[in-house]
Design a protein that fits this description.
Blueprint (H helix, E strand, L loop, with lengths): L1 H13 L6 H16 L8 H14 L3 H15 L20
Helix pairs in contact: 1-2, 3-4
Length: 96
């Protein structure tokens, strides 16, 4: 369904001078509803609750928190490169 909407909106953009105002309003309303109702990830209710509480505690939105968690997990497990390099003169905490 979202792909159909994207095709419809692209077609609308190409032929915008030939579409009626009423049809334009219907298509834009449909697009707005689809964008507003996007849920993204479907998580277990217990996970949703834990994420919501942690997001409030950290002062982040739930989506920002999920991006942070996933990004840090991917860096900790070598799926993403660490965004910085340590040189010989950098100070680090802890023992290796």
């Amino acid at each position: 369904m979202p792909d159909d909407l994207a095709v419809d909106l692209h077609g609308l953009w190409i032929t915008s001078f030939r579409i009626s105002r009423a049809d334009l309003q219907v298509m834009l309303r449909r697009a707005a509803l689809m964008l507003r109702n996007v849920t993204g990830l479907v998580l277990d209710p217990k996970v949703e609750e834990a994420l919501a509480g942690l997001a409030v505690e950290m002062g982040l939105s739930k989506s920002e928190l999920v991006r942070t968690i996933v990004g840090e997990w991917l860096m900790a497990n070598p799926y993403l490169p660490v965004p910085y390099e340590l040189d010989d003169e950098s100070a680090v905490e802890g023992n290796a």
